Amino acid sequence: MSLSLLILVGVLFSVGTYLLMERSLTRVALGVGVLGNAVNLLIVAAGSRPDEAPIIGRSGELTDPLPQALVLTAIVIGFALLSFVLALAWRNWSITENDEVEDDLEDRIVARRAEKNSKRGDVPHHEDVEQ
Amino acid sequence: MTTLMSLPVLGPLIAAAVMLFLRRLSAQRFVSFMTLGVSLVASATTFVNIWDDGVIRVVRMSGWPGSFAITLVADRLAATMVLVATIVVTIVLAYATGQRAPDERSSFYHPVYMVMTAGISQAFLAGDLFNLFVAFEILLMASYVLLTLEGTNEQVRAGTTYVVLNILESMVLLMAIGLVFAATGTVSMAELPARLAELPDGVRMGLQLLLLVAFGIKAAVFPLFFWLPDSYPTAPSSVSAVFAGLLTKVGVYCLIRTQTLLFPGELGNVVIVIGAATMLVGVLGAISHRDMKRILSFQIVSSIGYMLFGLGIGGSAAIAATIFYLIHHIPVKTSLFLVEGIVARDSGSSSPDVVSGMARRSPILAVLFLVPALSLAGLPPFSGFLAKFAIVRAGVVDAQWVGIVVALVVSLLTLVSMVKIWVGVFWGDVEPAAKVSTVGVLRHQRLMGVSTGMIVALSLAIAVAAGPLYEFATLAAEQLLDVAGYVNAVRSA
Question: What's the pTM value of the predicted model, to 2 decimals?
Answer without folding.
Answer: 0.90
